[in-house]
Amino acid sequence: MFHRLLSVVRRQRTGRGWQNWSSGRSGASAAEAHSVALPAQAHVVICGGGIMGTSVAYHLSKMGWKDIVLLEQGRLAAGSTRFCAGILSTARHLSIEQKMADYSNKLYQQLEQETGIQTEPLLSSLLRRMPELDTLEIMKLVNCPETFTPDMRCILGESPLVQGYFVLAGMNSAGISFGGGAGRYLAEWMVHGYPSENIWELDLKRFGALQSSRTFLRHRVMEVMPLLYDLKVPRWDFQTGRQLRTSPLYDRLDAQGARWMEKHGFERPKYFVPPDKDLLALEQSKTFYKPDWFDIVESEVKCCKEAVCVIDMSSFTKFEITSTGDQALEVLQYLFSNDLDVPVGHIVHTGMLNEGGGYENDCSIARLSKRSFFMISPTDQQVHCWAWLKKHMPEDSNLLLEDVTWKYTALNLIGPRAVDVLSELSYAPMTPDHFPSLFCKEMSVGYANGIRVMSMTHTGEPGFMLYIPIEYALHVYNEVMSVGQKYGIRNAGYYALRSLRIEKFFAFWGQDLNTLTTPLECGRESRVKLEKGMDFMGRDALLQQKQNGVYKRLTMFILDDHDTDLDLWPWWGEPIYRNGQYAGKTTSSAYSYTLERHVCLGFVHNFSEDTGEEQVVTADFINRGEYEIDIAGHRFQAKAKLYPVTSLFTHKRRKDEVELSDLHGK
């Protein structure tokens, strides 16, 4: 098969010869070595003649590319590929991996028909034909290098540092399963500028320089090896390579019971264990059912609703874009869908879209001055967003892009009493009349100056984000906690944040939004200004979609007949059924302590019952359906919503706020 794939390579015998030598790994004799003349130029050069290199060459030729050169130091398929015959499984943890494996399986059968080569992907089939193989003894143990990655997912995509340099590697012993699909997606990326599927979970840019430490890789890979075949429970964490990136508050929070998870190498608090809880039991809790931290997160959410909580969100990616003239505004207006020509001090929620109108990034941008902007993005956007901006920004010495993630500690003050805490610490009125929603102002907090205070919380709850120069972080945190005692302040973690944002129907990039999701498909039309006076990337695609309609729609589902204590929980990836027909999958899930129900977010499609083709999805189509969420084969009824639910709990909270305000006023 691999020699057949090589036939797509066009060899031009010009220039000096290249010695194609046989390495020890190939097992080839010296007589097999021969000289091959390299062409003077090529459209693409592929290094490595294993299944990945040959797959990319095959798919590029199928897509019409010529002058493809494949370089291999030994023989084709002479590396780890030759030891993996038969290891082809389509049962994979990630949806994109399943698609790659399915495509590979079909491709190999197609190649067998094309070439007449016999392929036998499954050992069981071979044993049925030759039962005597079952009694054979192992006479020789073959040991060869294999590649593994820090998160057990392969690496695919364009380098963030060198444009036109693509990588496909780190198969974690699944090269045969992924070879066909991975080669196809990378070839699509090279030819069209993007793959046909969302491959963010495999994208090279999910890693940064921080994951290239040899010591980190050595320790992590030793952990990864046994985990490849282990049961993956929800929200499990790697144990090696930890405490690599931490907030200045890490030790302080750790001493108060913080339990940690890691995102892009950054330690983030999940929740805070009270002194009376069994810490060991919580650490060892692994289940698909109701987790042991349920009551802990409930108390944190309740505090966010009724008093005030502090969440350390320092891991968020933070960029500053400045210019000497209007260059910064002009570039951002082109790269983002919303109108950023707003008064100084205003914050804009917007999307960084690609030509197809899909989200390359979902972020918030504050205008600090006429020529300076502060951009806040998800944690794992640090490399991807930087590469995208650098790729599309002009080479202008008067335009500066700076990554300031490490310069600021971010504290999220959530809850109705957050305004009281900040009012005392800043000696400034923080009411909506003086500090409206989505507003940014530099203030003094305690003894510290230059704190960027923003009236938003990423949850839909009232409160403020504080971006604090790192040298002031501990002081500001201590002051907030000290003043906040009278208002019932406590620490909270990302599990509480997740519950709050999902019940408010807040979609997150990388979970609910991706490069193939447009603002019109997830109810974010308000974050797009089609008529802002200038063109922007993705505008044409959105105009066409607005005219033709959308083919999927992000929807919120509230489970009705689900028993939180006894039934398996939804986590993400559960099938959605509309009127008994498959309609999509969930993208994220959380228990809403407000609604006392599980809430799932997911995209609803309208598949034709006759052809299976996708059809337009309208609000009426969503509202007229009867829905079920399939959790491990058991379907639960669910109510579909296109907008957040206003609950009785919210009204009760407002009533309690008034009573508490009266009490403190006496």
UniProtKB/TrEMBL annotation:
Belongs to the GcvT family. Transmembrane segments: none annotated. This is Pyruvate dehydrogenase phosphatase regulatory subunit, mitochondrial isoform X3. Keywords: Pyruvate. It comes from Vulpes vulpes (Red fox). PANTHER family: AMINOMETHYLTRANSFERASE, PYRUVATE DEHYDROGENASE PHOSPHATASE REGULATORY SUBUNIT, MITOCHONDRIAL-LIKE. Residues 44-87 form the Rhodanese domain. Pfam families: DAO, FAO_M, GCV_T, GCV_T_C.
